[in-house]
Each structure stands twice: as structure tokens, then as C-alpha cells.
Design a protein that fits this description.
- By secondary structure, the chain is mainly alpha-helical.
- Helix content is 41%, strand content 3%.
- The chain has 5 helices and 2 strands; from the N terminus they run αβααβαα.
- Strands 1-2 form a two-stranded parallel sheet.
- Helix 2 packs across helix 3.
- The relative contact order is 0.18.
- The chain binds a DNA duplex through helix 2, helix 3 and strand 2.
DNA sequence: GTTTTGACAGTAT
DNA sequence: AATACTGCCAAAA
């Protein structure tokens, strides 16, 4: 299946988002090396969620809100999932980014390399 | 190959 | 502050 390096990075990053935290499309795009590739991130998720089982619910737009209309099924499901992870919604579809935005670990601690085990759900 | 679309972001009005 | 326009990237047609 032949996907670009950017796609691989995005998938990897999204899968690294811990439970109870969220990231923005721009953040993922930037971490993947394309500061302006937020749009591509969205499309990648749409394309690879089923294939890679990505936690797409943890990716929101820069406003910390869900991208789809509130009446949309996906929106409801995303909201439900995030709530299940302990995320409190400020409004129907927005959360406190300052509180829940995922900060990628800048450095790799040399310890704790034995058993990463449990990942997502 | 080119064109269109899509789960975005940033800047300009 | 709230729209509108533009820029970016990757996949499907």
C-alpha cells in the first residue's frame, strides 16, 4: 500500500496519543514535519483509521473542537469516546485544550524501556 | 498524467 | 469578534 513518509509519521504520532489526551491536526502535522499539512492529516486519518485502528477521536481542530457538525453521527461518537476517556466538554463539541492537549515527550528517558505494554484500548 | 475533494490552519478583511 | 480567502498535503476519480 505505499504511503508517503508523512502519512507514516502521522499514523505513528496519532497512535502515540495517550488516553485522555487530545492533539490538534496542526500539531500532528507539525510533528510529522509538515507545519501546514493539517489538511493532509485529516485526510490520512479518514483513509487509514480502519486500516490502522487509529484513535481518531483524539484529534481535534486548532480550536479544540470537533470538526464535524454536532448532529453528525461521527461527532456524537467522538464526543462519547472522549468523555469515556475522562475529557470534560466545555460546550457541545469543545474542550479545554490547555488542559487536555497532548505534549509529545521531547526527550527519551533511558529507563523504562522494558515493557511499554498497554497501548490505547 | 490532471482535476477534485476533504475529518484543517493561518492570515486578511 | 466573525466570516472569507488562501495555502498545504495526500488520496480518489
Amino acid at each position: 500500500m505505499k504511503m508517503s513518509d508523512f502519512t507514516v509519521k502521522v499514523i505513528s504520532l496519532v497512535k502515540q496519543i495517550p488516553r485522555g489526551k487530545v492533539a490538534t491536526y496542526g500539531q500532528i502535522a507539525r510533528l510529522a514535519g509538515k507545519p501546514h499539512g493539517a489538511r493532509g492529516v485529516g485526510w490520512i486519518l479518514h483513509s487509514c483509521t480502519e486500516t490502522h485502528g487509529l484513535p481518531w477521536q483524539r484529534v481535534l481542530n486548532s480550536q479544540g473542537k470537533i470538526s464535524f457538525p454536532v448532529r453528525s453521527k461521527l461527532c456524537g461518537e467522538q464526543r462519547r469516546r472522549l468523555k469515556a476517556e475522562g475529557v470534560c466538554f466545555l460546550t457541545s463539541a469543545s474542550i479545554d485544550l490547555e488542559k487536555y492537549q497532548w505534549k509529545k515527550k521531547p526527550r527519551a528517558p533511558r529507563a523504562s524501556r522494558g515493557a511499554p505494554k498497554m497501548f490505547q484500548d
